[in-house]
Task: inverse folding
């Protein structure tokens, strides 16, 4: 009976304070908006972009013995804006490759050759594409264009998603709550990414789109149960959805964590996707089970009251 | 105990089996040997009639099981001084090759599955091409695709994909993907316009392409490298030459121009006063002396020469070989209608790819185990293991579709499969939860129906949010969208209904 007692106490507490709970996401939302506007005024953009979005050249040298610190020292006086990273095997911790990024404005063959020559002078052997090294180059015009298209795609995705949600629930406030929850997941994850100073790649932006999918799952579950099921109290319906939804989110978080730790160190693309999904899933707990719950409870109780008054 | 499967469960089983067939029944299913991937330019094996895709089972009566076996017997592909006899047995025939030229075969292990790994996993090169100072129309891009395909074919690249793509903003470009590790010479082939002109003084005698050139010798006595010399301690040079056959019109033009030239008499021989200058993309490649005998003659046969440099003789040889192939290619295929530029270029070595795939499987397995643990902990009944089976089958069915449709599985496509599996797990939890509501007096059928209202709601919402991505950047993310959409669609239509029916069966039994 102890368990029932706690449940009852919590229900009473929630009934009394659920509107107040909305202050937490509201404060976070205001903070996020202010932070991002500040960020925009500083950087003229909403996030840091990596080479796949700004354009530039990535040269990967598959050399397990290459000392990246020495290389960095060597390049500092010879190559402008060069950025050096290592990739290591997760299990053995052995270095697999060293990555050199430069911000060439366009895919100019001469410039790439020049960079290659500088590297070859340091390495003492020649870089053969596809054998001991790989070269990826993205022109800045192309990537700028690509970036704009991604933003347009996100915008279209949001509009289409909103239409589908409205068709499903046919009531304004609950639909808006679902859409807001997806929006807040993305917005708040973006703030965290910026605070951590992680430059986003194409894959990262796609991950934000994937967040929409994972975010709406739980919100649709909640809204469906609360609005469309007869016979139970609002609290009961919310509690049931919470049990289901939190299991969903928990399995997703565990699966993403496994992927993040195993393949993440290997591929910056997948690392970024999984990291953003992890952030989004954690933030979704707040945005679904605090924000959306409070809104839908408010809405459903109001409706019940009106019904009873009639 | 008698279990009656519903049609949904049967449909699921059929799809599962079809997927396994689509993935694992390869054209070389249950065979042993190595498959021919490519021939080098003067391959003796090619001349004997071996083809790309042939499966070699024996070399000199030694059994070949894999690439290592093959390389042990055919170690170095070099010119030998004497003629060597090699017998190659394929699945259908036996070839006896008696030659001093290298076999010139590159082979690969037989594929175990029909799955095609994308560029970032298998290795290879990809380029996005636009025209310089010109916005390409759809028609122009299509024409360009044909010319470039022809050019790469002539050069000897066979494993490639050339796709005209357009993006959200209506930009048209060409995407070129070449499997395997590809040397930078391919980059030149794509980006050079390849405008070839042979001039005497200011007058053009002939240009590249089939109008002026009827054929180009590419083997035998009429084409090859004829001398290599060391010029200094750190530089060597190799000279190549090959014969070009001109059309009648071009030959008459040659006669017309040369007939008015003077003859210079030198100690090395008598030549005409002007040389035949060869230009490639307006750069002078070579100047050839014209011997006295050709003055005013209608000659359809012209010998073209050039050279390649390198630090060692071997390097110079390779470079000359490349130069020659390049020149032959543009002479045959003619110039491109536009000056092109590469706006994105990637080469990825397959070394990282191998370990990727290994770790991806590990990550997938561990993720599934975590999911299973949570589900078992939460529901503690026998239906809790079902999600594990359903998820695995969802992965296999999605991969089955991918291999049937010949999609390339790149990193983003794999992320897409993971995304689809994620929604699959979520959906199954919804079904389990609805089914397990004990205080609910509804029939199991009604409970499952309730679950599917939520599942379809979420499905259409995700679909709406993903589709716009398919057109971004001319299909760079198409792999992701295709696999995700396929995964979730098959999920809500086939595997998840089957899962619901299984749960119904189990619940009824209790």
Result:
């Amino acid at each position: 009976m102890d368990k029932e007692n706690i449940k009852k106490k919590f229900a009473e507490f929630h009934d009394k304070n659920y509107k107040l709970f909305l202050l937490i996401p509201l404060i976070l939302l205001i903070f996020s908006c202010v932070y991002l506007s500040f960020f925009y005024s500083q950087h003229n953009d909403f996030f840091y972009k990596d080479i796949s979005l700004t354009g530039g050249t990535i040269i990967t040298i598959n050399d397990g013995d290459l000392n990246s610190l020495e290389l960095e020292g060597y390049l500092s006086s010879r190559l402008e804006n060069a950025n050096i990273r290592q990739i290591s095997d997760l299990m053995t911790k052995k270095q697999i490759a060293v990555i050199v990024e430069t911000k060439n404005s366009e895919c100019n063959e001469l410039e790439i050759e020049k960079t290659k020559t500088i590297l070859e002078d340091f390495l003492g052997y020649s870089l053969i594409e596809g054998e001991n090294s790989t070269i990826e180059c993205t022109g800045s015009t192309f990537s700028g264009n690509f970036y704009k298209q991604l933003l347009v795609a996100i915008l279209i995705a949001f509009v289409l998603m909103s239409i589908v949600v409205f068709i499903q629930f046919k009531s304004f406030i609950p639909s808006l709550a679902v859409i807001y929850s997806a929006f807040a997941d993305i917005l708040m994850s973006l703030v965290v990414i910026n605070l951590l100073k992680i430059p986003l790649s194409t894959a990262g932006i796609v991950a934000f789109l994937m967040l929409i999918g994972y975010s709406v799952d739980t919100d649709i579950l909640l809204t469906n149960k609360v609005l469309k099921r007869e016979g139970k109290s609002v609290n009961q319906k919310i509690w049931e959805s919470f049990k289901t939804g939190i299991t969903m989110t928990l399995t997703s978080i565990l699966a993403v964590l496994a992927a993040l730790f195993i393949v993440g160190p290997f591929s910056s693309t997948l690392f970024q996707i999984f990291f953003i999904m992890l952030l989004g899933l954690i933030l979704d707990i707040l945005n679904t089970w605090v924000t959306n719950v409070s809104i839908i409870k408010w809405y459903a109780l109001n409706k019940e009251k009106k019904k009873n008054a009639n | 105990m008698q279990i009656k499967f519903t049609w949904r469960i049967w449909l699921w089983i059929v799809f599962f089996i079809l997927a396994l067939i689509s993935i694992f029944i390869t054209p070389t299913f249950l065979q042993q040997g190595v498959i021919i991937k490519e021939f080098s330019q003067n391959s003796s094996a090619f001349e004997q009639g071996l083809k790309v895709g042939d499966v070699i089972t024996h070399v000199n009566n030694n059994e070949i099981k894999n690439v290592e076996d093959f390389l042990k017997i055919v170690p170095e592909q070099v010119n030998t001084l004497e003629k060597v006899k090699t017998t190659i047995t394929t699945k259908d025939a036996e070839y006896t090759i008696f030659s001093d030229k290298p076999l010139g075969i590159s082979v690969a292990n037989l594929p175990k599955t029909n799955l095609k790994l994308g560029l970032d996993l298998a290795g290879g090169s990809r380029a996005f091409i636009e025209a310089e100072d010109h916005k390409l129309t759809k028609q122009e891009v299509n024409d360009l695709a044909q010319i470039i395909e022809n050019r790469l074919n002539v050069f000897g690249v066979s494993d490639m994909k050339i796709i005209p793509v357009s993006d959200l903003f209506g930009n048209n470009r060409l995407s070129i993907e070449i499997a395997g590790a590809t040397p930078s010479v391919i980059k030149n082939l794509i980006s050079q316009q390849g405008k070839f002109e042979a001039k005497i003084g200011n007058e053009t005698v002939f240009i590249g392409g089939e109008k002026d050139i009827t054929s180009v010798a590419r083997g035998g006595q009429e084409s090859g490298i004829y001398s290599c010399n060391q010029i200094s301690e750190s530089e060597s040079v190799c000279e190549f030459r090959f014969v070009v056959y001109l059309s009648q019109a071009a030959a008459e033009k040659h006669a017309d121009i040369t007939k008015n030239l003077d003859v210079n008499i030198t100690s090395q021989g008598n030549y005409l006063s002007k040389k035949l200058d060869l230009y490639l993309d307006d750069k002078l490649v070579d100047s050839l002396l014209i011997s006295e005998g050709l003055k005013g003659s209608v000659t359809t046969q012209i010998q073209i020469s050039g050279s390649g440099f390198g630090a060692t003789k071997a390097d110079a040889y390779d470079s000359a070989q490349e130069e020659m192939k390049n020149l032959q290619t543009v002479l045959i295929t003619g110039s491109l209608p536009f000056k092109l530029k590469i706006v994105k270029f990637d080469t990825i070595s397959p070394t990282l790819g191998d370990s990727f795939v290994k770790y991806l499987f590990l990550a997938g397995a561990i993720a599934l185990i975590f999911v299973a643990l949570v589900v078992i902990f939460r529901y503690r009944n026998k239906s809790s293991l079902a999600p594990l089976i359903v998820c695995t089958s969802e992965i296999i069915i999605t991969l089955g579709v991918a291999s049937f449709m010949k999609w390339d599985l790149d990193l983003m496509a794999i992320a897409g499969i993971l995304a689809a599996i994620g929604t699959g797990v979520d959906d199954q939890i919804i079904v389990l939860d609805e089914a397990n509501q004990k205080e609910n007096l509804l029939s199991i059928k009604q409970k499952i129906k309730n679950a599917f209202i939520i599942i379809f709601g979420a499905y259409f919402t995700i679909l709406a949010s993903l589709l716009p991505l398919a057109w971004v950047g001319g299909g760079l993310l198409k792999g992701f969208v295709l696999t995700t959409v396929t995964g979730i669609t098959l999920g809500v239509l086939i595997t998840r209904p089957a899962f619901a029916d299984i749960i119904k069966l189990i619940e009824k039994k209790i």
About this structure: The first strand of chain B starts at residue 34 and ends at 39.
